[in-house]
């Protein structure tokens, strides 16, 4: 069906407002942030003197930034691996036609409906190790009671654990979501494929290893993208749960950005951190989008 | 199709009209007061002020815009976005000193209040020390509601009596006391460091102890170098002090950590006298206090104040509120709850508890130095970087590296070293 000229104009007009809004409020502000990161603005009054990449160079020499950058990489890797492994495992278990499947599915999925702030506050108390005087608290107390006392840890109060302790609530919250994605994926695979494999003599393990898992690859890719971009810009969970932690052992770039921009008035430095985060997310997302667009057409 | 186009045109015209009327309609009978007073003691103090204001102006609705977080760590960020975005709250809490002057006054966000200071007679009843830090280029810029002392050593009296201990006056004594407490299974030194500023606060008081009033003031003006051996000594002392701390310090905000002292599981802490307000609100009275070791005779001061931002929506209501803040009645009601002392010197001292009476005496006779962690001594950028260096020192107690970092931070703030 061919569109009339009038319809074409009308379509264009309907899209126009959102195009303008996105151009200004997304891309315009990204460009503005990029520009700010090249100036020497460090007061509540803007100073647009151009200084080139000085802010970026300073940033990579800044000890707090180095620590927070390393933290976010550690966090992302652990968070991704754990969420995907646990999500996949739950999905496979649920797919075995367990009784009360709906109930379990809801239980696993519920944490996702909670705000990271709530999760952060609750886990701050649960992972509070306690002291010699108060005795163990929270999870440590539980470990003591069930005879696994050797697993006790200082959690986020121990600078050697730091950000790794924040991975626990993040995985708790997001693995249910990964499970839902995988479960949908598994259910979308035609039964005939596994049945055919079983007729050929494949056991359960082989069905999963050679039929189901390879077919779930697009889902894994999607999960990796979604989780990584949540992870790279994580802020609320860290703020509510730990703050920057002992010696910045729980610090992340987004928290440093907030601190330096709004507490220290180093607007240019904050913009530089934002730009670095954007570049990292873009490195990840753009290949995915290209892949997705090609696949779609 | 034609009808539809007509309809959408109508909708957009209506939308424009509604937005227009909204923008022009005058909001009357409201005042929005922005602060970070949410913890025990401070919240009650603020409420006491509201009560007086409501009695005087019953028709005005008070909007209590608070953002939680000690030392205003989060509130300041929210305030900044609002001020820069052209949506200032009607009045807001700000630390008198550099934080007020450098961030908001020099940048021309505030209206001067000199007329109000004169007509209300505050110039005569507030001491020069406090008037100086709210003035810039001959005008007054905010109304101080209280004075806080930052260099206070708090301790549990019962614990000290049970173990036959006296509050330490030097750091040598402090460490002796700490060793004895540790043997008894009591946490010698309690602190909550979750918000990141608390270690910087403690370190500032140690700097005062090691450098003296003059030396400490000089750090912020360039008269004292950060490479000074006395700064090294302060770092060494701080490092040793943190070896006696509750190991879960990063799990708590300052107020949460004080449960250890109330329960008698912890013995000492260094913090400002908002702790007194917190203890009052918990109905805990068995606390003792002393100046931080080696700082007797020095008063590390900060003051909360409220100003009048340009372009606020309810200017008249704000001026009335500022009058309540500066009034005798307002200052008494607020400070009784908050644990601080009034900025005015003509108040009725008998209303106050022993702690506040002793602070009032010290305020009159001690050498006054400005607190850095609470915005009086240095601009916000410097404070933030100073705070980060000290927070890092807690986990990586390398004295040499940290001192170098402190020197760099001062240089970046424009103070030649």
Rg of chain A computed from alpha carbons, rounded to a whole number of angstroms: 24 Å
Give the SSE string of chain A: HHHHHEEHHHHHHHH
Gross morphology of chain B is globular
Largest interface summary: A-B, 37 and 41 residues
End-to-end Cα distance of chain A: 19 Å
Radius of gyration of chain B: 23 Å
Largest sheet descriptor of chain B: 5 strands, mixed
Q: Give the strand content of chain A.
A: under 5%
Instruction: Bin the helical content of chain B.
Output: 40-55%
Shape descriptor of chain A reads: flat
Mean pLDDT of chain B: 89
Strand order of the largest sheet of chain A: 1-2
Number of helices of chain A: 13
**Strands of the largest sheet of chain B, in order across it?**
2-1-3-13-6
How does this model look, in words?
Chain A has helices spanning 5-36, 54-61, 63-95, 101-113, 116-126, 138-145, 163-188, 191-199, 204-215, 217-232, 236-241, 253-263, 267-296, and strands at residues 130-131, 135-136. Chain A is mostly helical. The longest helix of chain A is centred in the N-terminal third of the chain and has 33 residues, at 63-95. Chain A is flat. The mean pLDDT of chain A is 89. Chain B contains 19 helices and 14 strands. Chain B has helices at residues 2-24, 42-56, 75-84, 98-105, 114-119, 122-125, 128-133, 157-162, 171-183, 198-221, 229-241, 254-257, 259-262, 274-281, 315-326, 328-338, 354-365, 380-395, 399-412; strands at residues 30-35, 61-66, 91-95, 135-136, 139-140, 142-144, 148-149, 152-156, 187-189, 266-271, 287-291, 298-302, 304-307, 367-370. The longest helix of chain B has 24 residues, at 198-221. Chain B is globular, with a radius of gyration of 23 Å. The chains are: A mainly alpha (297), B alpha/beta (417).
């Amino acid at each position: 069906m061919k569109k009339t000229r009038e319809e074409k104009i009308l379509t264009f007009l309907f899209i126009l407002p959102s195009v303008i809004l996105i151009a200004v409020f997304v891309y315009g502000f990204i460009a503005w942030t990029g520009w700010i990161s090249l100036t020497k603005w460090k007061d509540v009054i803007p100073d647009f003197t151009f200084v080139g990449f000085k802010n970026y160079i300073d940033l990579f020499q800044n000890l707090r930034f180095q620590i927070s950058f390393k933290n976010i990489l550690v966090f992302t890797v652990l968070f991704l691996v754990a969420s995907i492994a646990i999500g996949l495992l739950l999905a496979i278990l649920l797919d075995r036609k367990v009784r009360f499947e709906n109930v379990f599915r809801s239980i696993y999925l519920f944490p996702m409906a909670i705000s990271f702030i709530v999760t952060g506050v609750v886990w701050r108390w649960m992972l509070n190790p306690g002291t010699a005087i108060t005795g163990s608290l929270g999870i440590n107390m539980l470990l003591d009671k069930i005879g696994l006392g050797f697993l006790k840890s200082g959690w986020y109060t121990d600078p050697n654990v730091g950000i790794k302790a924040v991975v626990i609530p993040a995985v708790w919250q997001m693995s249910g979501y990964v499970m839902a994605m995988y479960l949908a994926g598994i259910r979308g695979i035609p039964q005939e494929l596994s049945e055919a494999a079983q007729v050929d003599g494949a056991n359960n393990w082989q069905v999963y290893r050679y039929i189901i898992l390879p077919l779930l690859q697009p889902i894994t890719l999607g999960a990796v993208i979604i989780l990584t971009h949540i992870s790279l810009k994580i802020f609320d969970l860290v703020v509510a749960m730990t703050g920057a932690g002992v010696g910045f052992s729980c610090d992340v770039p987004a928290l440093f950005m907030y601190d330096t921009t709004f507490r220290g008035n180093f607007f240019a430095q904050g913009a530089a951190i934002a730009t670095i985060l954007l570049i990292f997310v873009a490195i990840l997302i753009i290949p995915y989008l290209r892949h997705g667009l090609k696949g779609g057409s | 199709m034609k009808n539809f186009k007509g309809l959408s045109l109508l909708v957009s015209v209506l939308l424009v009209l509604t937005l227009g009327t909204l923008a022009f309609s005058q909001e009357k009978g409201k005042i929005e007061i922005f602060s970070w007073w949410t913890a025990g003691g401070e919240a009650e103090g603020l409420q006491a002020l509201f009560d007086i204001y409501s009695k005087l102006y019953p028709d005005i609705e008070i909007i209590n815009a608070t953002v939680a977080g000690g030392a205003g760590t989060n509130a300041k960020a929210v305030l900044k976005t609002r001020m820069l975005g052209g949506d200032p709250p009607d009045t807001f809490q700000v630390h008198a000193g550099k934080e007020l002057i450098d961030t908001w006054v020099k940048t021309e966000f505030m209206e001067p209040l000199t007329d109000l200071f004169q007509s209300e007679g505050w110039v005569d009843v507030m001491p020069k020390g406090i008037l100086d830090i709210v003035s810039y280029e001959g005008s007054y810029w905010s109304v101080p509601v209280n004075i806080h002392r930052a260099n206070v050593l708090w301790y549990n009296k019962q614990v000290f009596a049970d173990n036959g201990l006296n509050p330490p006056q030097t750091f040598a004594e402090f460490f002796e006391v700490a060793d004895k407490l540790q043997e008894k299974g009591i946490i010698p030194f309690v602190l909550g460091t979750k918000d990141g500023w608390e270690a910087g606060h403690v370190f500032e008081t140690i700097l005062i102890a090691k450098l003296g009033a003059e030396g400490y003031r000089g750090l912020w003006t360039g008269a004292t170098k950060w490479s000074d051996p006395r700064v090294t000594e302060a770092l060494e002392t701080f490092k040793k002090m943190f070896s006696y701390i509750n190991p879960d310090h990063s799990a708590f905000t300052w107020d949460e950590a004080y449960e250890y002292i109330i329960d008698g599981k912890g013995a000492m802490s260094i913090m400002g006298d908002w702790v007194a307000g917190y203890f009052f609100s918990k109905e805990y009275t068995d606390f003792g206090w002393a100046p931080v070791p080696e700082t007797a005779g020095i008063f590390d001061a900060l003051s909360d104040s409220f100003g009048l931002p340009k372009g606020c929506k309810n200017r008249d209501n704000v001026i009335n509120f500022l009058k309540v803040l500066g009034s005798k009645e307002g200052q008494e009601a607020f400070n009784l709850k908050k644990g601080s002392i009034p900025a005015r010197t003509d108040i009725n001292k008998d209303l106050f508890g022993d702690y506040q009476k002793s602070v009032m005496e010290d305020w009159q006779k001690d050498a006054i130095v400005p607190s850095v962690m609470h915005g009086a001594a240095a601009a916000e950028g410097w404070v933030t970087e100073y705070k980060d260096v000290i927070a890092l020192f807690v986990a990586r107690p390398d004295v040499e590296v940290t001192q170098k970092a402190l020197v760099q931070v001062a240089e970046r703030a424009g103070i030649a070293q």
